[in-house]
Automatic annotation (TrEMBL):
Official protein name in the record: DUF3307 domain-containing protein
Transmembrane residue ranges: 38-56, 62-79, 86-107, 122-144, 165-192, 212-235
Top-level taxon of origin: Bacteria
Pfam family, one: DUF3307
InterPro entries: Phage_phiKZ_Orf197
UniProt keyword terms in alphabetical order: Membrane, Transmembrane, Transmembrane helix
Origin species: Pedobacter yonginense
Amino acid sequence: MDIYLIKLILAHLIGDFFLQPNSWVKDKETKKLKSGKLYLHVAIHIVLIFIVFLSFDVWRAALSIGLLHLIIDACKALFQTKKNARILFFVDQVVHFSSIVFIWHLFYKGSIDISFLNHTNSWVIIAGALFLTMPTSILMRVIIAKWIPTNQPQSPQSLQSAGKYIGILERVLIFLFILTNHFEAVGFLLGAKSIFRFGDLKDAHDIKLTEYVLIGTLLSFGIAIGIAMLSLQYIS
């Protein structure tokens, strides 16, 4: 990756996540375009670009990114509500990084190499990882549906859809561990999950629930290992 792009990204990360207190964020959400913290935040981003480059010759790039940052943050402040706050956070960051790449390309003639998309290996990895997310969750739900304990009320302390997302994360991690030849990490992941699950199952005193969790865990791990091993056969 080009050194100029790395420095621009570094300046953004420091400015947005290290030098922006929560009080500033709340001030922008409340006062919107009248918030002084909004303009101070943008000024800090501009100064950070000068600092990471250790030069004032980047003033055009710094001011351009500062202006775009102001426009993006102003739009977010104007349109953000409690309902869309989470999605706007991700949209905001995607647009920020896109603007950084645009300025980098404009002033430093940078270009991102996407030739890896022409390789079979990349598509095998993408397909394998995607299969282990929602498709595998649906497949597992169908397979183990007949074993779901009917006498277990849903715990009020359980996060919504937490089990599904935990399963997706563990399968993707297993997939990456095996592709990078770190089989020992798979055992560590299984051991860590067993430790965290042990207390819940011990307190439940329910053999059916224990067996259900065990079937789900082994099936999830088994599918992830199988897909990873199959993917390795097609990666040259």
